[in-house]
């Protein structure tokens, strides 16, 4: 038991010592980054001194615009380089998957699409395809059965009730009674 206690106490002591070292290293890195930032700003951004005359102000504005344009060009170039490298990385990772034979399934989303829209998507917008499923069906004539004839002769009972309901129906019954 004493060995276990000693081992755990030693582990805890080592752990706390490592955490203290890590904290001091993080503080040193933060201070180094701050110094590096200050040096960069001092080198690339000299302190601004505003001249008194109008012509000197215009020259200063022209210089600032030239610097802005150069910075924008650099930013654009770095963005293009970044896009190229990300595209190359994607292509290389796809080649790796192809070489290994393991294919990553893309996440699929459910999409509601009509048959016409699906055919248009498959065949392209050039082809006008109308998929009317009812157009190809045969038309069948309905044969009159005896029951339907009898119902037609008797008449629709709902029709009689609608005629007799309400004030108009009572008026007709009253007039028929006279």
Automatic annotation (TrEMBL):
Chain coiled-coil ranges: 14-102
One GO biological-process annotation of the entry reads: skeletal muscle contraction
Classification via Pfam families: Troponin
**What Gene Ontology molecular function terms does this protein carry?**
actin binding
Which terms are listed as keywords in the entry?
Acetylation, Actin-binding, Coiled coil, Muscle protein
Cellular component (GO) terms are: troponin complex
Q: Which SUPFAM superfamilies match?
A: Troponin coil-coiled subunits
Mind telling me which InterPro entries this protein's record contains? Troponin, Troponin_I, Troponin_sf
Function of the protein: Troponin I is the inhibitory subunit of troponin, the thin filament regulatory complex which confers calcium-sensitivity to striated muscle actomyosin ATPase activity.
Q: How does it assemble?
A: Binds to actin and tropomyosin.
Q: Which family does it belong to?
A: Belongs to the troponin I family.
Protein name (Swiss-Prot/TrEMBL): Troponin I, fast skeletal muscle
Q: Which organism is this protein's natural source?
A: Toxostoma redivivum
């Amino acid at each position: 038991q004493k060995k276990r206690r000693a081992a755990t106490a030693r582990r805890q002591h080592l752990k706390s010592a490592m955490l203290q070292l890590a904290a001091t290293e993080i503080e040193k890195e933060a201070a180094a980054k701050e110094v590096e930032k200050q040096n960069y700003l001092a080198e690339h951004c000299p302190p601004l001194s505003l001249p008194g005359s109008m012509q000197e102000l215009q020259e200063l504005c022209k210089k600032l615009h030239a610097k802005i344009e150069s910075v924008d060009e650099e930013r654009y170039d770095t963005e293009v380089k970044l896009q190229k490298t990300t595209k190359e990385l994607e292509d290389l990772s796809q080649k790796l998957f192809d070489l290994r034979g393991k294919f990553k399934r893309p996440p699929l989303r459910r999409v509601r699409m009509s048959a016409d829209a699906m055919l248009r998507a498959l065949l392209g917008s050039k082809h006008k395809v109308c998929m009317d499923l009812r157009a190809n069906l045969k038309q069948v004539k309905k044969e009159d059965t005896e029951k339907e004839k009898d119902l037609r002769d008797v008449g629709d009972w709902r029709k009689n009730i609608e005629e007799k309901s309400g004030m108009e129906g009572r008026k007709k019954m009253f007039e028929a009674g006279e």
